[in-house]
Design goal:
2 helices; 25% strand
Amino acid sequence: MPFVSIRITREGNTVEQKAQVIREVTETLQRVLGKPPHLTHIAIEEIDTDNWGYAGQTTTEFRRQSAENKA
């Protein structure tokens, strides 16, 4: 039974977009690995940008600084 965990930042992802991701990941596992869709589980976890960090800062702060540098 495949289990796929997908973590993305919470930024207005629609129900339709997430459903498409689930559908397409399931189809890929079936096509490439022969895994039956009825046994495939996909979990999408959305994380606030204040709770996701890299380069020593939160994603919120990193994007704010990037936007300021472009202006």
